[in-house]
Amino acid sequence: MFAAAKWLMEGDFDEAEGRYRSFAAKAANVGDPNGVHSAALHEFLVLWESGRVVELFEKTRKAIAKYPNVPGWRAILAYVYFEDGDIAKAELEYRTVRDADIRSYGRRFDWIPTATLGLAQTCHALGDRKYAEDLYGYLEPYTGREGIAGLGAMAVGCIDRYLGLLAETFGATDRAIAHYHAAIDFDTKFGARPWVARAQYDLARVFHLSGRAAEAVALCRNLVDSAKDLGMQNVAFKGESLLRQASRAK
Hints:
By secondary structure, the protein is mainly alpha-helical. It folds into three domains: 1-50; 69-171, no CATH class; 192-250, no CATH class. Helices cover 76% and strands 4% of the residues. It has helices at residues 2-10, 13-29, 33-49, 53-66, 71-83, 87-98, 111-126, 129-139, 159-169, 173-190, 193-209, 213-230, 233-249; strands spanning 146-149, 154-158. Strands 1-2 form a two-stranded antiparallel ribbon. The longest helix has 18 residues, at 173-190. The relative contact order is 0.10.
């Protein structure tokens, strides 16, 4: 599983997929539910990063059915719905997890992906300003660190990226920019190329919205090339769209 995490961070999704499938089979054979769950988290990231939306919906729904007491899957499904354009379902799933209060879950093995991949991304996507401030305070002590699920089974990128999303949501633009820069620097040193591309997109978006078109264009060109090289279809598509918008604003 650690090998799968390594390949995933480096952006070799095919190799990561082979590793987590092998691990999942072994975990199932010995009846290890934690191992099966960890493999499922890896599968989500591979499908998400490579833009395999149909499979992503199927696997996430299955995970919710299999692990009904793990809130992270429902939080992640909310973001998947948003990315697919179904805002009503995204809001329904998001509110279910948000209103239960993440603090009530404790520091469980899945709290990092719940708070980051699920809640922080969806909170930003839906513009939930009030909750963004609350979740920001919950995650801020972990600034400058990599988000790790379980005992190092999976990394979700530098926590500063999610703090940037939340700061952007409640209107602290300069703070968001600082967090995005920190995430890019951290994950570049960490060798986590997919997370660098995502943080670059977030920073380029803020630059564009702040009237800093030239900086947005330069970042977009970089991240689009990187995303295409890695096979991150969704990030490449969004990056190209933002590049066109920022280029017209120059």
